[in-house]
Structure formats: C-alpha cells, structure tokens
Amino acid sequence: MKFLELFSRTGLIGAHRGARTKAPENTLRSLKASVGHCDFIEVDVQLSRDGVAVIMHDDTLERTTNVAKIEAYKSRTPYNVADFTFKELDSLDYGSWFDGEFEPLLTLKQALQFIKENRMFLNIEIKDMHQFFSDEQVISTVLQEVEELRVQESVIFSSFWHEYLPLCKERLPSVPTAALVEDTHPDNLIEYLRSLHVDVYNMNDELVDKESVNKLRQAGFFVNIYTVNDPLRAKELFEMGVNGIFTDIPSLYYPL
Q1: Per-residue model confidence as pLDDT tens digits over 56-84
Q2: Which of 55, 110, 134, 152 has the smallest set of CB atoms within 10 Å of its CB?
Q3: Residue 13 confidence class, pLDDT cut points 50, 70, 90
Q4: Across the strands, what pairs with 42?
Q5: What's the CA gap between 90 and 87, in Å, rounded?
C-alpha cells in the first residue's frame, strides 16, 4: 500500500514524534513504542553542520539532550543543531532527560530503515533550516536517503517552510507532500495549496472548523490535525471529515 492510499478512509492515527509519552521523542525507542498503536509515525528532520540528516524537533539541543552538561560545549549556546557536526551530535544522550536512560541519536537513515523493516508509514517533517542551508541542499539530502532505501511509497514530506514542498514534488512527484500551518490559514487557501502542488493540509487543532475541512476536502485535499490527545475531540474531528490526527498518546486510540 502507498501512503496516500491510507487517506481513502478517515480515523487515521499518527504517532507524534513517536510514542513520546512512553519514550523520549524522536528516538528509536519512541518509534518502537508506537508499533501497533498507530497508522503512521511522524518525525522531524534537520541537518547537522556537516550535512547529515538527523531526527530532532527543536532548533536547539538543550531540552532533549545532555549538551548543557558537557563542559566542552558550554560556550556554544544556544546549542543550535545546525552548529554541531554529526560526530558531536552522535556523542550526546537523547534519553536521560526523559527517564534517566541513555538513548543514542536517531538518524533519518535509521528511521527509514525501521519503517521499512516494520512495514510502517512515516511522515517526515522537514524543519525550517533556510537560515543555515540552501533549500536545495536540505531537500537533496533528505530525498537522497529516501531514494537510497527505496521507501518512496511509505513516506510523506511535510513542512512549515513551504518553499521545500515544490522542490520535493519536482524530484519525487509520486511522493505526497503536506503544507503545515499554525494559527492562520494562508490567503486564498485552495489556490495557494494548488500552487504548491501538495496533497495534504496539516493544521493545528485551534485553527480547524467544519467549514474549512469541507472546503479542503471538496477541493481534493486530505486534512490532518495536530496535536490531539483527547479521544472525544478526535471523534469530533473525524465526524467533520478530517482524515487523520497527530497524537502524543497513540495507545489511547489503538490499545494493544
């Protein structure tokens, strides 16, 4: 099955940064904890200073690593991910902040290998890195990983930096793309989305309403909502015609 074929139905559950209430977010452990509890997994990708695609949500390292405790790095605040080489990022602990257990860095390649082995689907959110790298470098790096592992049918690309999305579509036209928005819709929404050649519209829960969902669905776009941790709210959204939700607690929806 291809990723877009999932959207032939509603009620889809996306594990937001993996099962991030069960394991440290955006780590291999969080991906493993989401197996059996979701229809797809969502992760965030950025580039190290030397251009390696790594899985990390924040622009900076302090919240989810031990970087501030390492003497050699104390002068490198605000600890931007893009200021650290892959070797430096790989030396950090990505799990002890969560539950005291060490967890190594997760690369995009490892995440793609995981979904391939487990026959799962992955929403790859490409973080806005235009201040550090050219759009072409970011997209080339991320898409090369997908092509090398031959998982084009198992992924979707999303981003708040919408300039990435046409580049993704130009290089891999068969892979779906999603425009991410927060708080306000772009002007002339339907025309705007068509100009980006996207397939999906991902918006925050505070922005959604039945009228906008109907408009989007009638125009042929699929709709996902983030971040929904209340099953009753999820039910309301699915009744509006929303295709999927992103949740921090996927086991609420698919308990084993």
Answers
A1: 999 999 999 999 999 999 999 999 999 99
A2: 134
A3: very high
A4: 16, 123
A5: 5
